[in-house]
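Following the same procedure, sequence and fold were stored together, as reproduced here:

>
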Amino acid sequence: MTPRGKIIIGVVIVVIVVVAGLGTYYALYRPNSSTTPPATGATLTIASSATPTSLDPAVAFDSYSVLFDDQIYQTLVGYGTKVVNGQTYGSLTPVPELATSWIINPNGSILFNLRHNVTFSNGDPFNATDVQYSLDRVVTMSQGDSFHVAQFLNSSGIKVVGTYQVLVIPSAPDPWFLNLFQLWVTDIVDPTYINAHGGVVKDTVNTYMSDHAMGTGPYLLNPNNYTATTITLNANPNYYGSKPNITKLIFEYVSSPATQQSLLESGSINIALNIPLDQMNTIKNYTNLKVEAGPTSSEYYIGLDENVTPFNNVDVRKAIEYAVNVSDLVYYSTFGYGVPLKDVMAPSIESYIPAFANYTYNLSMARHYLALANLSSGFSTSFYYASGDPIGTAIATILQEELAKVNITVTLNQVEAATYNTDVGHGTYPMFYEGWVNLLATPDDGMRPLFSSHNLGIYGNYNYYNNSTVTHDVLVAGTLYNQSQRDALYQNAQRIMASQAVEVPLFNLENVIPVTSNVNNLYIYPTFDIFFDQVTVS
């Protein structure tokens, strides 16, 4: 779902200089601030069918929460942009945000040089102590997607070197350590503010911060403007960067995608986040509307909880693989914006192989494996998906029809999105629709969270898949700086997971956002992030 290149616009020039005895020094320079349009007082209204679970970056794990964190908070390192065929997209290239430059040392540690003259939106000054506090807080609280941090960083590895310098030392080798500091979970928070409102308690959520976000980003939240139906963000008057063209963001909760579409067509809203993909051609026919779309590093799948009978039987899981016509399912649910997958991660990711290619649509094979499981007469189960998700709804309907052909009766269960995002990892859904955005676009981020036995349940492994060889291979591979050695381990793990039918891979999905035609510079990021301070309204 979701961070972090909030104020980088245009071409970024990269200078790489080898510094003797230190490692590699990276200094990236922003374009002149005059490339950002002056503030016009424009208001942007966005409709969404789900509300955020938490605005605390140490807790947030769903795309709706990260969407808000992107506007309010900032990380040390942001995301850049790239131009493809004249179209600007977000890229995963590291660029300065709260860090202006960094040195990567031979031992993998990174010395960050921090930006001066930055304050939080309440006026508190930003410095290195805030970075140390924020990163340590993530590890201590151990919530949300904190495993991204805790796997490779602990409190002893976060050191204040000077007022505006921080040294971070990985607790284990990590070929992609720098990219960690692009993730929203490493957003920098204000220690004074948090300590005045509950502080940091080990393994515990700070409930105050769930709806009282306060950071260094271009927008700020007035808690009085946070209701069950509307959340309003205003431009941060203390923001150090160029003032955004959009000075007010209004997020409206609109549960019905059809209502979102009507509001967009009438111009009552500027962006709709949940209009079904089958309506995009209709939207393109409106002169006042357009569709923004771009590639992502996502992977969507049908999860099979191996703690639940009969999905603890590999033959049943293989039967499901053969019973699902993935090509048709993808075509009819994504309308050309999804690419069928043959693996647990996208083909663009390092170490990818089409490990699931042998699972073609074959009802005879499906019945064969059901017979091996002594379930020739079929069985009944339940399929869960988030309400308000048009793709999930389409998948559920098609899946129910497909599995009925092999005597598997499926009861469909829509769950309110916030509840679904909380409960899907608790082992209560035997079969479910889920997606994973490979935020770092690495095999480590694409495999370890979802399939390591160390991440069972809410930590990412929703299938409760527990294989010692796969866990070993993905953990060891993620520590190797030699790509050939990494590939061998990752590909072995992919083959094992395919042989055990760990899930049903479905598709890699483009990020598709319909907007009014006066909305410009809405860049599509592979991580599904949106940075509204880049956006202009004409």
User: Anything to note?
Assistant: Residues 1-37 have pLDDT under 50 and may be disordered.
